[in-house]
Write a structure and sequence with these properties.
Elements: E1 4-8, E2 11-14, E3 18-23, H1 32-35, E4 39-45, H2 54-64, E5 73-78, H3 84-103, H4 116-136
Antiparallel strand pairs: 1-2, 3-4, 4-5
């Protein structure tokens, strides 16, 4: 039985579907940066994943934005920490959080229109404001 990563109480992610590769990290670190590949690049094929329902996979690809390839593969890079293990955990945690967000179905917005009294009140307010502003105007006769 392959190991699973819990995402929600009803959804588990198969660890075999995640591909991790270690790359050299940029930034400060002196000579060590040039020797050790501590950054992690995580690849997860959302389109072909057996762990995710189709609707969740579609929402996940929309949420991922430019982190998703044209083939439906999500690519995350983690290089915040100095060790491979910490970066690996960070990348997986970010993927799990992204999937968790994709499981939430957004409610459809019900379009409404203002009531007749609200429209009337708005028009009255605008008229009153216009009267106040017109009283502030200085006419040409007042300059003479």
């Amino acid at each position: 039985m392959p190991p699973f990563i819990p995402v929600t109480p009803t959804l588990n992610l198969d660890e075999a579907e995640i591909e991790l590769s270690f790359i050299r990290s940029s930034g400060p670190g002196g000579q060590n940066v040039n020797k050790v590949a501590t950054a992690v690049q995580l690849r997860f094929d959302a389109r072909r994943s057996k762990s995710l329902p189709n609707a969740v996979a579609v929402r996940l690809m929309n949420l991922a934005g430019r982190r998703v390839t044209s083939e439906g593969e999500i690519v995350l890079t983690a290089n915040q920490h100095r060790t491979q293990e910490m970066n690996r955990k960070d990348a997986i945690a970010r993927l799990v959080e992204l999937i968790r967000q994709a499981t939430v179905v957004q409610k459809k917005r019900v379009q409404t229109k203002p009531s007749k009294s609200a429209r009337r009140e708005r028009a009255d307010t605008k008229t009153k404001r216009g009267v106040v502003k017109s009283k502030r105007r200085v006419s040409a006769k007042d300059w003479d």
